Each structure stands twice: as C-alpha cells, then as structure tokens.
C-alpha cells in the first residue's frame, strides 16, 4: 500500500489517493548468470511450452479430430496439422560472416534498418526436421522464432503447402477492478536527460506532476496520479562522444556520469510526491542482454532516499490497483519492425499478443540471456495494459478480442509528450507539455 501524499498549490490542497502495487517481474531477475549454454535449449524450451498452448487452439479451431503429426511423420499429400518454430530466410539478414567480409573490404554491405525483401520465405522446424513452407501464409507478417500450428500438405516439390494456420492460445486477462474513483498512471519514455533541447520540457513535466503548473482541472487530474512509469532511454546518448571515448588516446570524463546525475536530480523531485518505476532502456547504463536488470540504486543517491523510488526490470510486469501492466522499453518492437513489414507500433504489439511471445526474435537478432528449460518471454495470460516505450509515434488502441489496451509511448525528446492512463476506465489521454518550439 502506497501512503497518501498531498499536492498543494495556491493554498488549495489536493490529496493524492493511495494505491496498491504488486511487482510481478521476479521471473526476469537473474541471480546467477552463466553463459556456458547454447541457445538451442531456449528454442527447444519455447516450442515445448507453447506446444501445449497450440494444442488447445488446434482443438478449438479444427476440432479434436485434427490429424496432428510431427513433421517427419507426414506422408505423401495427406492433410495434417504440424507444429514448429518459424525461421525466416532473409537475404539481408545480418551475419557475422558478412560483417567480417565488410571489415576486410571484400563485399560492402548496404546500410539499412529494414532487412526485408520480396524474396524472403519461411521455414518451419521442430526438434527433428525443417521444411520450406508456402501457400496461405504471409512471410512479411512473421519473424524468426514464432511458434505456430500449420494445417496443410506436402506438395510435389517437398514444400509444405499451408491451407490454414493458428497461433498459441493465451488466457484472457483478469477483469478490471471496480474502482470507485479515477486514478491515473503516467507513461513516459525517451527522456534523454542531458539533452539541452529537452531541459525546459522536462522541468515542465516535473511541475505538472508536482502540481506547480496548470489550470485547476490539470491540478485536479494530476492530484489523482498514483504512479509514473519511465520506460527506458532516460539519459542522453551522444554517438560522437561514444566515438571519441573509443578512439582518442586522451581520457575524457564520460558524459554518461553527468547525465545520470541529472536524471537523479530529475527523479528526486518527482518521488517527493508520487511513486516512480524506472526501467532501463537500450542506451541506458545497464546490461545489454534482455531481460535488462534494474539499474543499481547507488547511481541515484538522491532518489534512492525515498521509498517511492523503484528500479525495475525491462520487460516490466506489475499490477497497480488490480490492473495488470506489461511492457518493454521498445527494443522488441523496433527489432520486429526491422525484420517484417509491420510498421505501426500497435500492429507489432498486437502481433506479439497473437504469437503469445513478447520477443520472438530473441536470440536470433535481439540479444537475450541463454535460458535453459524455460522462456520467461512467453505470454500465457494477457495483461490489461500492454505498452512499449520509445516508439516512433504515439499510438494506443483497445483490442476487443483479447480485451487488452495496447499503448505505444513516444520518445519524450522528440514529442515532449507522455500519456495519462485512467485505471478505472482504461482511457488514455495524451499529455503534451510544450510544442516543438518551446
């Protein structure tokens, strides 16, 4: 239970409501790290766990009499249902061999953030066999690592011709709690503290949260704020500084140290009145492999003095007043967009819900910890709110089928905006602290 706090402005006292909070991210903590294992065990665990979820969906879609077989047992042109992991063959797929050849000036590689071409095709593989698949399935809407059930037959060329397909089955989210009053959670990402152009908007955001800025309706709304979630990329990263630190002989003071101090100053002003969850992001001083571990509290001496300051993992999983929040700092969404033709952030979020996996492209194109006998990124039960930080644009929409609110949080440094989410109604309101020329 979070204690109540007051927001006082111009002799008017607004009482901030209390809220309940449960951190569900324990599965993303890695107490003992070992890198002696291969990633094959992660793919095997993923397929083993999701096969049970796929069998539920197979029975629901094609009936209990569906001819379910392993790939190696499919004979001739019989119609069968097979289960496996998708591998997407891409000519532009990054490869260490291509990188080496580029370093040796043998074959220059094109610089691109999108690796799809019209010649991409899919391969299905299980523990024993792999086969090229074709037919009623779009390669550009899938990525490597997705577990899927296919209904079809083997054609004369030896390819598996797909008539229909289905994804794993996940349980519906818990019903929303019956809250009697409005309570809000603020979602923000890409603060890039240390960027001079964002200094003034960041101060305005502080003043809004603390109740030092805005009209009476704004003060009333922000007084109902019970939590702030900062979804990664909180400090400024300068590519030029990274280049200098790597290649110049003279040692200079890294800008990261000063930026972390500024971030501590920023958060310490907010945690005086409201709880803050700080997630690491792609460019933050945290481990590179997913799941990213919480930033160490010693980096934030001013903020860590408050019980309302919380360092959390990326991915993020918590329950706030009975509403389950699940999300990431955006690396997974960015990576899936690069290896498919899915461009809208909420479209990618929806696909990961369909696939019942948050980061299917890990470890193929997104680095992750080599788990053994488990895969914590599998979505076996849908959350109420599913978010992604550092998106290319602000988007949010409700999936009526899965009953999930999908939220793409834009980078604050580009839009000077955040989102306020009402826990009682799941309504989202964009918060623009200033325009681009402020």
UniProtKB/TrEMBL annotation:
Signal peptide: none annotated. It is found in: Nucleus. GO terms for cellular component: delta DNA polymerase complex. One of its GO terms (biological process) is DNA strand elongation involved in DNA replication. Gene3D superfamilies: 2.40.50.430, 3.60.21.50. Residues 38-164 form the DNA polymerase delta subunit OB-fold domain. Its main location: nucleus. The keyword Manganese does not apply. InterPro entries: DNA_pol_a/d/e_bsu, DNA_pol_D_N, DNA_pol_delta/II_ssu, PolD2_C. Keywords: DNA replication, Nucleus. One of its GO terms (molecular function) is DNA binding. Belongs to the DNA polymerase delta/II small subunit family. PANTHER family: DNA POLYMERASE DELTA SUBUNIT 2. This is DNA polymerase delta subunit 2.
